[in-house]
Write a structure and sequence with these properties.
226 residues; alpha/beta; Rossmann fold; Arc Repressor Mutant, subunit A; four-stranded antiparallel β-sheet
Length: 226
């Protein structure tokens, strides 16, 4: 991972040995790392230090990670937050989207997964773009966790549906050509126009018709406020 030592990090974990090991692993990537052992202490450090990035566990005494994130998000929609948990619960995924978190990581955390999540944090800071995008009609898409929700309900996507939404939202405001879509979704097998039409039709079925617009003979674009 490219060194990003210009940023500060708040790392929140109640198990001291886990926290210390993580801080040692990450210390070269940040100009300073602040440590907290529960959400209450983390909130005090957040108000005092205003870190650039937050990584927090969910299961903690005094104040858990989700409550801590809610408190932060009441006044701060921009600071990238990565949340960690030992459990893969749908309700946690929904909360991650609702709280505009960058990543939801399952313990034990793999080095590659953590590096990818941090890279997303750096990109979020530098681009200024939100990670959760409104698609109209109360649909939200979490671009980092690849999660689609509607009125706080999780909508399960296939890998191809996820790839299509990813590239359309990444290029929001522009038309994505058929060739771009082929290279992104069917890079190993090739694409037929019928396959692409079916993919778009399926997404429209469980969302709404105007969410993806066909630009004749060119490609498709996503309408974020359809």
């Amino acid at each position: 991972m490219k060194n990003q030592a210009k940023y500060t990090l708040l790392y929140v974990e109640d198990e001291a040995y886990v926290r210390k090991a993580a801080v040692m692993f990450l210390e070269d990537e940040f100009s300073e790392i602040y440590e907290a052992q529960d959400g209450k202490e983390a909130l005090e450090i957040y108000y005092d230090k205003k870190p650039d990035i937050i990584i927090t566990d969910i299961e903690m005494p005094k104040m858990d990670g989700l409550e801590f994130c809610k408190r932060v998000r009441k006044e701060d929609e921009k600071t990238p937050i990565i949340i960690m948990t030992a459990y893969s619960h749908t309700e946690y995924l929904l909360k991650a989207t609702e709280l505009n978190l960058v990543k939801y990581l399952i313990k034990p955390i793999e080095e590659e997964s953590l590096n990818e999540a941090l890279k997303s944090c750096f990109e979020k800071i530098e681009s200024g773009n939100p990670s959760v995008v409104g698609l109209g009609n109360n649909y939200l898409y979490d671009t980092f966790n690849h999660v689609l929700t509607h009125e706080k309900k999780l909508i399960h996507l296939t890998s191809s549906q996820t790839l299509l939404l990813d590239i359309l939202i990444k290029n929001r405001g522009h038309v994505v050509s058929y060739i771009q879509l082929e290279n992104s979704i069917w890079y190993d097998n090739g694409m037929s126009k019928d396959a692409l039409r079916c993919l778009v039709r399926d997404i429209r079925k469980f969302t709404y018709k105007e969410i993806i617009e066909n630009i004749s003979k060119i490609g498709y674009k996503v309408n974020l406020h359809g």
